[in-house]
């Protein structure tokens, strides 16, 4: 029996961008419903599946297990709960050993935390967060169906998964080295403190490196995407350096947060080869990952480097198409009862 | 409040000073209460300092706050003098409310501190009222109503947020979720993981932040203040925090264990902010030690001042209730003055 790992980050989709921008609140009720839909979607192949769910203290995981369809054998993982990103990483590390596919509900941060531990396990990323460059805004049932098709081997994983790059941040400070990994982006902000974590004001953004770039993205990948688009499957990255629009040689309009478009001044926007670092001096600022401030730094030098061969992401549409081509949705015809 | 501006090194130093002052004040208040010097009850703010100071760091000096039963921290965060606060706790005439309020009723309207109070959830209606006044007079201030996690389920809190929302008033509701309503864990009071989710019912934004991090609280309240001043109405900010002491001094705390308290202390708001300032090169450990010593002396002076101060005259019980004192009260006040209070309150 194939095994699906399910991670629902209770904290995703709640940050201050509900106040400063137009992001929607994704409350626990909504997350419970999406998780329930994922489990329903797992029945698409008709094969029984084991479902391992990351536990939490909000009742989301318990609800998913309680409401899981009879065709599934759903349980929560036995693991400590810290109510932090450590839970996601711990659960993902278990899935690396035990799951055939994983479904992650959250934003880029949650997806990154899971991806860093999942290894080669195919990952279906569903958006219930704020900064959603990588996760798809897709119905949970559809996501569950894609995960089931991959996990059961109905659709070969190699045919419908791609490797997404990451961005490694390495900071040299007076007190030593500090590291951070971004999935879609690693950013440098001039804000002094982590504060509410979210990167709020584009005028605070000094630049960064992205692993994919498209105008339809949100945040720094959108800025880079306006000038130097980069497919998620392309190796390398794009380094963007920003300045005040009044002093900038180029300006772009970009979606910098949900509900926020802005004019952003660009000093430079350059493709980077895999492993080629971009260096930023940070006299007083914060290095972020995927739209959230993470490392407070003073008098530091930061190297941001695109790294290939990151998480193995499932293309949901391609998976379902391939599933149909393979006859994965067909069931034996039922004979019409004969009339007497 | 520019002197608490966390974007400046001086402001950060002042914010740290106020957090340390709150802790020192409340530690000494707890000690003196245990010694029987302070009447009534005291509810200490130790552990929650980042919420009060972070909130006030985002306000201007003429903004208003309305407090809770755990109000010492709010007072100090808003800039009240520990000397007159301690006198109030001691019930002395030199206190902010002439010794008639005590710990749970400190107010200094001139400083924008509309009052602590002993009624759970009474801060939000006061904040809504102040916000209505601001709006009616077309002024620029905002009003903050503090409330605890237990108060979120109070009817008057619903009324206050509902009206503030409906009328787009410049109010901010800061929920200090310290995870216990008296002795009841928050998960046994509410079917919500984030109390800020309740904001959706009022069609206003709600956000939950780390209440142990002064920078997170200040940033969220600053955004809420901008929103209020732009005429966009109220905001709810839930700060997840923790009180290190019992609900009240003397609480035996059968509802939690020491391990839980120690886990929260690992995120101590003063220690973490101090460490960050040291890392930024804005403070040394020696300077912090000196700051603690200086504040200890300030609190010792406040205790001595309070101990030496006089109790209010019995007739003062009839004062400060009405702009124009009714004749009946004037009569009783006169009686109290005449007989020194022996029968001053007896109006049979």
Structural summary, described in words:
The complex is a heterodimer of chains A (340) and B (348). Chain A is an alpha+beta fold and 340 residues long. Chain A is built from nine helices and 16 strands. Chain A has helices at residues 17-20, 28-41, 60-67, 85-98, 108-118, 140-151, 157-160, 220-227, 316-325, and strands at residues 2-8, 49-53, 72-76, 101-106, 123-127, 161-163, 166-173, 176-182, 185-189, 205-210, 237-243, 250-257, 260-272, 278-289, 292-307, 312-314. Chain A is elongated, with a radius of gyration of 21 Å. Chain A has two domains: 2-163 and 311-325, 3-Layer(aba) Sandwich (Rossmann fold), CATH 3.40.50; 166-307, Sandwich (Tumour Suppressor Smad4). Chain B has 348 residues and is α/β, with parallel strands linked by helices. Chain B folds into two domains: 2-312, Thiamin diphosphate (ThDP)-binding fold, Pyr/PP domains (Rossmann fold); 314-348. Chain B has eleven helices and seven strands. Chain B has helices spanning 9-34, 49-57, 72-77, 82-89, 123-136, 155-166, 214-229, 258-265, 269-279, 285-308, 327-339, and strands at residues 64-66, 143-148, 171-177, 180-181, 184-185, 206-210, 235-240. At the A-B interface, helix 1 of A face strand 6 and helix 7 of B. Chain A: Keywords: Kinase, Transferase. Chain A: GO terms for molecular function: NAD+ kinase activity. Chain A: InterPro entries: AcoX-like, ATP-NAD_kinase_N, NAD/diacylglycerol_kinase_sf, NADK. Chain B: This is Pyruvate dehydrogenase E1 component alpha subunit.
